[in-house]
Design goal:
The protein has 2 domains: about 70 residues, no CATH class; about 40 residues, no CATH class. The protein is about 30% helix and about 10% strand. It is built from 4 helices and 2 strands. The chain has a two-stranded antiparallel ribbon with strand order 1-2. The model has no long low-confidence stretch (mean pLDDT about 85).
Length: about 120
């Protein structure tokens, strides 16, 4: 939010300027089928609990957004190629530039979000 990382130790404090997005993914359980509509989960409650505790609480506290993804069937996947996707992204970038947007959506300041993204 303020694009800074603050590190405090016993005798010192330091601040680093930074701009990055941390993106992570994890299955809901060791077998990956906990919320599946098509496959059965074979994990015990203890295995699931242990699996969820693999990531430490201090790390989890620093993650701002959690998104649960539903599985999709092969039939639901779009057949758009990487080249077509790149072209769509470029078109969106050009559109943003034409309307006066100077930053990518992910780097917009709070006050610019309603102006460019609503």
């Amino acid at each position: 939010e303020d694009h800074k990382i603050h590190i405090s130790r016993v005798n010192s404090k330091i601040t680093y300027e930074t701009k990055f997005s941390f993106i992570a993914a994890q299955n809901p359980c060791p077998c990956g089928n906990l919320f599946s509509k098509n496959l059965s989960c074979v994990c015990s409650e203890n295995e699931i609990k242990k699996y969820k505790n693999h990531i430490s609480a201090p790390i989890m506290d620093r993650i701002d957004l959690y998104v649960a993804m539903d599985e999709i069937s092969k039939d639901d996947k779009t057949s758009i190629s990487s080249k077509e996707m790149s072209e769509k992204i470029l078109q969106a970038f050009i559109f943003g530039k034409k309307r006066g947007q100077k930053e990518f959506n992910g780097k917009l300041k709070d006050e610019d979000l309603s102006r460019f993204c609503v």
